[in-house]
Design a protein that fits this description.
alpha/beta, Rossmann fold, 4-stranded mixed β-sheet, 11 helices, 18% strand, globular, binds nicotinamide-adenine-dinucleotide, binds uridine-diphosphate-N-acetylglucosamine
Length: 340
């Protein structure tokens, strides 16, 4: 049987690279398309090194119709996993047009190219950000959608485009995957999250404090209605998240269907629980100060992940200790001895 070929947009990014490794290990052919605006080309060799397989890499942009035309013209693509996008919430608020252009227009260009070449199987990276704050904090797929920032709006708008495409043409198979808080790194320490500058997100920030690159963590509020007063989130190991893509793809191809699923663990953890787990696992200290709440934050956000389990048997396996250990290995190992 010939191998299926998967185009991964945003393939050299954090989630794309981990998903690429698992696709290669499951014997898919992988083509990565990335404009390298938020990742580095050496990720390609790292993915090849972990998997022992070759990857095709195209440096290009999903907003470039000519580039997309060539990619589809020159390669027998069976399905697309669409990760390419901008994801910094604060940046989206200050640069809305850039976010709508990249995330919404870019996605539309991609879907048009897919349609032209008859490639109608797609997984899309959506986010828990599409849910409104319902005051409870546990979200299932039917929870109300009401994003509160530009980044979340771009995800909601692309979801809506995809719902309309499916309604107009039943031959599309679309997987809308709503991620909660992806953290951790590949256990090899060869790939991981590599944010530019000072991280916005909790886990990479903790890792930089533990390594001494930053002096302390600011904990954004300890007066939330949660057991220790700090925010509760659903942290999911990147390996579990990547596996969720493979299971979704397999399910959609086997059942010839579309899905919308949460990918989370269903286990909320507080900021301080994560700090203490990190300290315990790595034996490093993570000094912190309690500061004001961050604008736009909610108290509690975690998944009801039962649909993904019922439909396709997927559930998260890694706990927060493993998330911390793998983040730390990447933080230390990648910056020291790793030369490919
Ligand atoms: P990332 O920034 O590491 O990866 C995204 C990749 O897309 C980068 O390599 C970037 O260079 C590339 N890219 C951006 N715009 C592009 C364009 N126009 N053309 C080609 N390539 C482009 O981010 P990630 O964490 O791997 O996230 C992947 C996807 O998942 C994004 O769409 C993001 O919004 C979504 N998501 C991420 C999280 C998270 O916490 N990491 C949570 C929910 C959803
Ligand atoms: C944020 C985004 C969300 C995006 C997700 C990607 C906001 C409002 N939401 O989610 O849209 O999909 O990242 O992973 O930005 N915290 C601190 N100190 C820090 C950093 C974070 O105390 O320096 C706290 C936050 O208040 C929150 C928790 O840690 O309670 C997690 O924060 P973060 O990692 O930024 O993720 P989210 O806010 O859940």
């Amino acid at each position: 049987m010939t191998k299926k070929t998967i185009l991964i947009t945003g393939g050299t990014g954090y989630i794309g690279s981990h998903t690429a490794v698992q696709l290669l290990e499951a014997d898919y052919q992988v083509i990565m398309l990335d404009n390298l605006s938020n990742s580095k080309a050496d990720v390609v060799q790292r993915v090849e090194k972990i998997s022992g397989k070759k990857v095709s890499f195209i440096q290009g942009d999903i907003r470039d119709d000519q580039c997309l035309h060539q990619v589809f013209q020159n390669n027998p693509i069976d399905a697309v996993i669409h990760f390419a996008g901008l994801k910094a919430v604060g940046e989206g608020q200050s640069q809305p047009m850039r976010y709508y252009e990249n995330n919404v227009s870019g996605s539309l260009s991609l879907f048009q190219a897919m349609q032209s070449f008859g490639v109608k199987t797609l997984l899309f990276s959506s986010s828990a950000t599409v849910y409104g704050d319902d005051g409870v904090g546990k979200y299932h797929e039917q929870s109300a959608l009401s994003p509160s920032n530009v980044y979340g709006q771009t995800k909601y708008m692309v979801e809506q485009i995809l719902r309309d495409i499916q309604a107009s043409d039943a031959s599309w198979r679309v997987g809308i995957l709503r991620y909660f808080n992806p953290v951790g790194a590949h256990p090899s320490g060869y790939i991981g999250e590599d944010p530019n500058g000072i991280p916005n997100n909790l886990m990479p920030y903790i890792a930089k404090v533990a390594s001494g690159e930053l002096t302390h963590l600011n904990v954004f509020g300890n007066d939330y209605p949660t057991p220790d007063g700090t925010g509760l989130r659903d942290y999911i190991h990147i390996q579990d998240l990547a596996a969720g893509h493979l299971e979704s793809l397999r399910y959609m191809l086997e059942k010839n269907t579309s899905i919308t699923v949460n990918l989370g663990t269903g286990q909320p953890h507080s900021v301080l629980e994560l700090v203490h787990a990190f300290e315990q696992v790595t034996e490093q200290s993570v000094p912190y100060q309690i500061t004001q709440r961050r604008a736009g934050d909610v108290a509690i956000c975690y998944a009801d992940p039962s649909l993904a389990k019922t439909l396709m048997g997927w559930q998260a396996k890694y706990n927060i200790q493993q998330m911390c250990a793998d983040t730390w290995r990447w933080q230390t190992y990648s910056k020291t001895i790793l030369k490919i």
